[in-house]
Design a protein that fits this description.
The chain has 272 residues and is α/β, with parallel strands linked by helices. It has a single domain, classed as 3-Layer(aba) Sandwich (Rossmann fold), CATH 3.40.50.300. Helices cover 29% and strands 24% of the residues. It is built from seven helices and ten strands. It has a ten-stranded mixed sheet with strand order 3-2-4-5-1-6-7-8-10-9, with helices on both faces. Strand 4, helix 5 and strand 5 form a beta-alpha-beta unit. The radius of gyration is 18 Å and the shape is globular. It starts with 16 loop residues before the first strand and ends with a strand.
Length: 272
């Protein structure tokens, strides 16, 4: 078994339930690498993943480093990644409702909703309508999450409506992780849940130019996409830490308190 799979012993891919990853960047952009890593792991095991893009930012080349670190061929593995992209809130709503039927065919163990709340903040959508549609989406995902894992991505609160929508989400969540940069210069991201704390080492490595990445993605030569030692699997070590999350903007009580908890230090290959 490849060393990278040891991450499942610590930073596990959720098996069921709805998990919210909330972190820095536009609607959680900076924590998306975690989900891309989880997705690569699931795909490498021969399973399918459904990825619904609510933030208009899906880029298949972002999956190359984690997939190659697992010694897998991106062209072959990414065939099992099903992408849905809505350009309006109502299109996103329909994609989320439809994914239940798609999963019944693909048996995918992981569904990702990237930037779920981005379209709900459209000023052309009435606030009551936005909250109503969000509850409908979450109810559908909650039923689906009994059989597979649903991961949602979101970022810092940017408006009162955004805060209201986050409050609407809470009753549907099984896990909620908040992330912030512990040392952005060195790409150390601290991820904290209710009883779980991790230090994520996003090690930026030298990558090929975009054209070479696309060539590697479309080539029929399985050896052509092999990269150097920079794509070696992540390494893990436990470190003693006292994780302290900054106070959330909504002032809720589930923020992480200072404690003598073990943090897990994980090195994740990411796209520069």
């Amino acid at each position: 078994m490849l060393p990278v799979r040891r991450t499942t012993e610590d930073l596990q891919v959720p098996s069921t339930g709805i998990t919210l990853l909330e972190g820095p960047g536009s609607f959680g952009k900076d924590v998306r690498n975690i989900v891309q890593h989880w997705t690569a792991m699931v795909l490498s095991q021969g399973d399918c993943v459904h990825w619904i893009d609510g933030g208009h930012r899906f880029d298949p080349s972002q999956f190359f480093p984690p997939i190659q670190s697992l010694n897998c061929n991106p062209e072959e593995v990414l065939r099992r990644l099903y992408i849905g992209r809505g350009f309006t809130l109502h299109q996103l709503h329909q994609l989320i409702l439809r994914v239940r039927h798609e999963v019944s065919l693909t048996k995918a163990p992981l569904i990702v909703i990237d930037g779920l709340l981005a379209m709900f903040l459209d000023q052309q959508i009435k606030q009551f309508e936005a909250r109503s549609i969000l509850r409908h989406c979450l109810a559908a995902l909650q039923k689906l999450s009994k059989h597979c894992s649903v991961v949602l991505l979101d970022g810092k609160t940017i408006s009162p409506l955004h805060q209201q929508l986050k409050c609407t989400m809470r009753p549907y969540l099984n896990k909620h992780f908040r992330a912030f940069w512990d040392d952005k210069k060195h790409a150390l991201l601290r991820l904290a849940g209710e009883n779980e704390h991790y230090l994520l080492d996003f090690n930026p490595h030298h990558t090929e130019n975009q054209q070479r990445k696309l060539d590697a993605f479309t080539t029929i030569d399985p050896n052509a996409s092999r990269s150097s030692e920079e794509d070696l699997p992540p390494t893990i070590r436990r470190v003693q830490a006292q994780p302290i999350l900054p106070e959330s903007q909504d002032g809720d009580s589930d923020r992480c308190q200072s404690s003598e908890l073990d943090a897990v230090h994980v090195r994740i290959p990411v796209q520069e």
